[in-house]
């Protein structure tokens, strides 16, 4: 075809064009041959270029036969970030432990394997192992989290089809000290309570699913809690619980100015390393998952409301001459005062009658609005997933206002009450509590001014006065200028208020002139002792406990004792003159 | 032309050998990297478990139990704290500022060489103060 091609005019124009490009118009054989070789060169170099490119791609991509092995290892070893306390002490961390698995299809002699395994691991159930190994599955767990020694022993047995995977095990070195706060994880390292659950709901679970959270290189999470304070609080609470044979005890230390929770203890508690204990209903966290009638502690809110409205000062007189009769109800005081008392005495004597009158003088709507403003009527959300809705009367009548004025008829989570009282003493800022470390500046950004600073001043003085000459005398640790309010609330048993079963609380602030920390102590159903003369009111058990706690934690919190402070009475006089 | 062929064949052989060497080297290095990574992982894991153990050992609960068993110490009380401003005033200084320190001058005035010479003569001389003049 090529021979006669140049001379043929009948050739289609396309062929002619190609030929012209390849050979020129007048071609000879050698030129043709050269052109063919050139074509072959181009074709082969293309093929080689493709091969070379492919090689480069392989080289860049890496074969990674080693990395693949560790990747399968990591797929199950989900890592969690360490949790530290505010001083960097480890509260929770990951430790690698081997886990035993079997591949039933590859086991040659099942009976022998079962026999050997149950001999080395005495705590596994032979029947269960048999069931699992008899299945037709490719992979079964035999035992999660075995010890290194057991791993070595089983390895030495040399059973085919039995292998180990290294998993991350969550450990809590401080044991039950921070249990309620930090929560715990299940065997697959998913958080199921407390801060651990919060971590999961804040993106860690997504990371796990995407397969990124495999390495240890995760930023640790720093909490606001101080392990030493937490321990001191727990230790004293356990002692108090034993001493007064109480059903339960709880305590909370919070930073007044940032809303950080420095310590939170609710005993009985559990060991997060052994999370099965957590299912016991007596071990709930009473500070966030329980709601309680806070008793006289709530009087602080009532009095603050009256002070904040500007209609009363701490010297305003209130009638406490006789029990308050409302319909068929009679509101009594623990001891009848029989006279009109100024507001500061309402606080120190903890008069139910007078505080009810204060609330009535403000009106039902104002009372409700004030409590709402202080966050007492709605569910408090913190980092802890567990939270309880406060029990608020559906129809809020005058009678409700009367009882709520002295802390009955409405139940809130104690943490909620702490938040409200923090707002009363820190200059009037309502700061949502947090379990994470927070600076003062960050706190002020989320803070809301709810009462006037002057009201806050008066409340501090009232609390200090109460520690000097009121019901909180036993907690007045010299040098720390403690202030406080006690609360004894009768528990509802079979629909009636019981005189025998009470819930005692004590709220302390320190130092009262410039509060840094608030401490809440709660004792559930303490019993009378000879040394308390059989009394079960807060002043005889919760308050001394609070005193002991303050003595222990104040140095840890970096508070310097001062002994040159004036008695509060003079300050009150000065303050009341100012406010006039 | 033949020479060119020979040259190309040689170059090919060299290139193959070179590529083989590079390949081997890279394999060795990859292995090393993997081993180092595994080592780092292992070290990190053991650091983590040591830290966990440390945290367990210094858990305040354990420390308190140990302290109450072995020590006769009591918790600190507020009254035991004091501030720096309550320290007694510094005793008056007998040396005016700028004057040389009197004790320092005594020490410096000791002639060490004479002392060494005296020591070589008299074995009983031990102190750092030279013996009085007329003693020898």
Automatic annotation (TrEMBL), chain A:
Start and end residues of each Penicillin-binding protein dimerisation domain: 78-187
Any one of the GO CC terms: plasma membrane
Penicillin-binding protein transpeptidase domain ranges (all copies): 252-527
Pfam family of the protein (one): PBP_dimer
Keywords: Carboxypeptidase, Hydrolase, Membrane, Protease, Transmembrane, Transmembrane helix
Transmembrane segments: 37-60
GO biological process assignments: cell wall organization
Subcellular location, record wording: Membrane
Keyword Transmembrane helix belongs to the record: yes
GO MF: carboxypeptidase activity; penicillin binding
UniProt-listed SUPFAM superfamilies: beta-lactamase/transpeptidase-like, Penicillin binding protein dimerisation domain
InterPro entries, per database record: Beta-lactam/transpept (IPR050515), Beta-lactam/transpept-like (IPR012338), PBP_dimer (IPR005311), PBP_dimer_sf (IPR036138), PCN-bd_Tpept (IPR001460)
UniProt keyword Transmembrane present: yes
Protein name: Penicillin-binding protein 2
From TrEMBL, chain B:
Listed name of the protein: Cell division protein FtsL
Organism, as annotated: Afipia massiliensis
């Amino acid at each position: 075809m090529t021979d006669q091609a140049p001379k043929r005019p009948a050739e289609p124009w396309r062929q002619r064009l190609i030929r012209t490009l390849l050979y020129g118009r007048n071609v000879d054989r050698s030129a043709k041959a050269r052109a063919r070789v050139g074509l072959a060169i181009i074709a082969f170099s293309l093929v080689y270029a493709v091969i070379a490119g492919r090689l480069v791609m392989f080289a860049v991509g890496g074969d990674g036969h080693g990395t693949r092995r560790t990747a399968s290892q990591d797929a199950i070893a989900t890592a969690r970030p360490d949790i530290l306390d505010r001083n960097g002490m480890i509260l929770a961390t990951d430790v690698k432990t081997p886990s035993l698995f079997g591949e039933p299809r590859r086991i040659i002699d099942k009976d022998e394997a079962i026999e050997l395994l149950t001999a080395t691991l005495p705590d596994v159930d032979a029947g269960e192992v048999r069931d699992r190994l008899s299945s037709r599955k490719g992979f079964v767990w035999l035992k999660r989290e075995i010890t290194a020694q057991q791993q070595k022993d089983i390895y030495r047995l040399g059973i085919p089809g039995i292998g180990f995977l290294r998993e991350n095990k969550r450990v809590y070195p401080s044991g039950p000290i921070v249990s309620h706060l930090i929560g715990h994880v299940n065997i697959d390292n998913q958080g199921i309570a407390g801060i651990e659950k919060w971590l999961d709901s804040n993106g860690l679970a997504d990371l796990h699913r995407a397969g990124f959270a495999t390495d240890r290189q995760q930023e640790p999470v720093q909490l606001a809690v101080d392990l030493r304070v937490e321990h001191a609080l727990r230790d004293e609470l356990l002692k108090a619980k034993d001493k007064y044979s109480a059903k339960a005890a709880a305590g909370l230390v919070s930073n007044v100015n940032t809303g950080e929770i420095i310590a939170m203890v609710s005993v009985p508690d559990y060991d997060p390393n052994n999370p099965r204990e957590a299912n016991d209903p007596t071990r709930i966290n009473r500070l966030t998952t329980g709601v309680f009638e806070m008793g006289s502690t709530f009087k602080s809110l009532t009095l603050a409301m009256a002070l904040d409205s500007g209609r009363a000062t701490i010297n305003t007189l209130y009638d406490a001459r006789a029990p308050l009769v409302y319909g068929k109800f009679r509101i009594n005081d623990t001891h009848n005062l029989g006279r009109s008392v100024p507001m500061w005495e309402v606080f120190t004597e903890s008069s139910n009658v007078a505080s009810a009158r204060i609330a009535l003088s403000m009106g039902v709507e104002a009372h409700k609005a004030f409590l709402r403003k202080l966050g007492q009527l709605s569910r408090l959300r913190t980092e802890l997933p567990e939270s309880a809705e406060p029990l608020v009367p559906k129809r809020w009548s005058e009678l409700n206002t009367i009882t709520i004025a002295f802390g009955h008829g409405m139940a809130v989570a104690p943490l909620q009450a702490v938040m409200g009282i923090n707002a009363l003493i820190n200059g009037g800022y309502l700061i949502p509590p947090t379990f994470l470390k927070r600076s003062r500046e960050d706190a002020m950004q989320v803070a809301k001014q709810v009462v006037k600073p002057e009201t806050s001043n008066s409340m501090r003085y009232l609390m200090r006065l109460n520690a000097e000459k009121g019901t909180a005398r036993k907690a007045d640790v010299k040098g720390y200028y403690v202030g406080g309010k006690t609360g004894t609330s009768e528990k509802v048993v079979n629909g009636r208020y019981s005189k025998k079963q009470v819930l005692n609380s004590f709220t302390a602030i320190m130092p009262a002139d410039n509060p840094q920390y608030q401490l809440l102590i709660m004792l559930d159903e303490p019993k009378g002792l000879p040394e308390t003369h059989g009394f079960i009111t807060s002043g005889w058990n919760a308050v001394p406990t609070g005193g002991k706690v303050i003595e222990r934690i104040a140095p840890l919190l970096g508070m310097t004792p001062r002994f040159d402070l004036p008695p509060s009475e003079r300050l009150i006089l000065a303050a009341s003159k100012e406010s006039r | 032309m033949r020479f060119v062929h020979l040259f190309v064949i040689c170059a090919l052989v060299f290139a193959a050998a070179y590529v083989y060497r590079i390949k081997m080297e890279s394999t060795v290095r990859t292995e090393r990297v993997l081993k180092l990574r595994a080592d780092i992982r292992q070290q990190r894991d053991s650091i983590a478990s040591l830290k966990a153990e440390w945290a367990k050992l210094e858990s305040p609960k354990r420390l308190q139990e140990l302290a109450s068993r072995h020590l006769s110490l009591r918790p600190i009380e507020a009254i035991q704290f004091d501030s720096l401003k309550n320290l007694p005033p510094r005793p008056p200084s007998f040396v005016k500022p700028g004057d040389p320190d009197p004790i320092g001058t005594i020490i410096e005035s000791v002639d060490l060489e004479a002392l060494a010479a005296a020591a070589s003569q008299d074995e009983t001389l031990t102190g750092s103060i030279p013996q009085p003049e007329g003693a020898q």
